[in-house]
Amino acid sequence: MKCANCGAKLKVGSVYCYVCGKEAQIVSDYNLLEDDFLREVLKEKEEKAAREKAKERVEKEKKEKSNPRPHANPPVKKGNRRVKKRIIFAVVSMILLVVLIAAIILLVNHGRENSYDYQMEQAVLYKEEGNYREAETYVKRAIELEDSLTAELFLSDIYLLRGEEKKALELLQQLCRENKDQVEIYQRLIQIYDKQKDYDSIRALSEQTDDQEIQELFSDYIPEIPEFTRGEGVYTEELSVEIMAETDCEVYYTLDGSDPKQGQKYQAPVEIKPGQNIQIRAVACNSYGIYGEEAEGTFQVELQKPEMPRVTPGGGNFIAPQNISVAVPEGCRVYYTWDGTDPTSSSKEYTQPIAMPEGNNILSLILVDQYGMRSDVFRCNYIYLP
C-alpha cells in the first residue's frame, strides 16, 4: 500500500505516513486492469510453451518409432525407479536364498555321505523293504568309512538274501581267519555248510578254535569222544573192555595203534588175554558222517604167579593116620610129588585128599592157574610113626 500524498510505501496498519506525516490514504500498488492483462499474457505464454513442448514430444516419439534404438534406456520416472529397485532386491534375495539352501543341502549330503551311522540306517531300511541292491551299496559305503564287523556280517546277510551264497561264504571265511573268537561268524558258516551238507567243513571249522562257547555250536554236529569201561593200565587178570558212545553214533576201533577211521566197527567188548599189550584207538561217527575226537588207551595183562597151594595139615609129627587136603581154586590144578623133586604138570594131579604115608616124607606141590601160570613149590615134611 502507498501514501496518497507522497507515494511512500506504508506499513500494514499505519494511520499516518511515516515520511510526510499526512493522514494515510491507501492507494493500491497496481491497477486491476494491468493485473488481468498480465495474467492473460502469462497464460498465453504458458499455453504456447505447453503446445511447443507437446509438439516436440510428439515429434520425438515419431522419430523414435521410425528409428528405434534398442540399447537406449527409456526415461524412468522416480516411482518406477523405486519399484525397479525393489524388484532387483527381491531377485537378489531370492538368489541368495536359493544359494543358501543349496549350500545347506550340499553340507547335509556331504555329512550323510561320510556318516557310518547314516549309511547303516539306510542299509537297514532298504533291507527291510527288500531292496537288497541299495542295501548292499549303503553297507559297502559304511565299511569304507569304518572297519566294522557288524557291517561285514550285515553284508554277508545281504549276499545270502540275494542268493549269492558263494560271496557270503568267501566273506565269512575271511572274517573267521581274522576273528577266531566271534560266535556270529561261526553261526553263519555252520548254517551255510549245513545247507550244503558239507559236514567235513563243519568238522574242520570246529578245530579252528578252543573257545568253549563256540564249541557248543557244534554239539549237534560233532560226536562226543567214546569212553572205555576200563581205565588203561596193567592188569593181572584177563580183561574185557567195552567202548561206549552216543546212541546215534557208530564206533570204529583198532587194536594196533592205527587210524580208527580205517578200523573195524565196534560190536562186542574187546577181550585182552594174559600177556597181551594192546593199544585201543576208537572214534565215533554220527548220522552226518562226521567223526569226533578219538579215544585212546593202552591195556596190558601181566599175569602173576598164583599163590602156593594151601595144605592141611601143613606138616608135623603124627602117630595116627592122616589125610592131607589141598585147597584148589576154581579153574586151577595142583600137582605133587613125594620124592623131593619139583612137581610139574606131568606129575600126579591132586583130585582128592592124600593118605599120609608112614615114615619121614616130604610132600612137594605146585598150583597151576587157568592161564598156565605155576606157583612156587610148596613143601611139607610129614613124620608119621604109628
Description:
By secondary structure, the protein is an alpha+beta fold. It folds into 5 domains: 1-30, no CATH class; 31-64; 116-218, Serine Threonine Protein Phosphatase 5, Tetratricopeptide repeat, CATH 1.25.40; 227-301, Immunoglobulin-like, CATH 2.60.40; 310-384, Immunoglobulins (Immunoglobulin-like, Sandwich). It is built from 9 helices and 19 strands. It has helices at residues 32-66, 78-113, 116-129, 132-145, 149-161, 165-178, 183-196, 199-206, 212-215, and strands at 2-3, 26-27, 227-228, 233-235, 239-241, 243-244, 250-254, 264-265, 270-272, 277-285, 295-301, 310-312, 316-318, 323-327, 333-337, 348-349, 354-355, 359-368, 378-384. The strands form 6 sheets. The chain has a 5-stranded mixed β-sheet, with no helix packed on it. Helix 7 (183-196) runs antiparallel to helix 8. It is rod-shaped. The model is unreliable at 27-34 (pLDDT under 50).
Brief overview:
With 386 residues, this protein is of the alpha+beta class. The protein has nine helices and 19 strands.
The low-confidence parts are 27-34
Round the Cα radius of gyration to an integer and report it.
66 Å
| Mean residue pLDDT | 85
**Portion in strands:** 15-25%
Question: Any idea what the CATH architecture of the largest domain is?
Answer: Alpha Horseshoe
N-to-C terminal Cα separation, in Å?
212 Å
The largest sheet is:
5 strands, mixed
Morphology call: rod-shaped
In sequence order, what are the helices and strands, one letter per element? EEHHHHHHHHHEEEEEEEEEEEEEEEEE
**How many individual β-strands?**
19
> What strand line-up does the widest sheet have?
4-11-10-7-8
Write down the oligomeric state. single chain
Per the CATH scheme, the topology name of the largest domain is Serine Threonine Protein Phosphatase 5, Tetratricopeptide repeat
Number of domains: 5
| CATH level 1 name of the largest domain | Mainly Alpha
Helix/strand/pairing category: alpha+beta
| Helix share bin | 25-40%
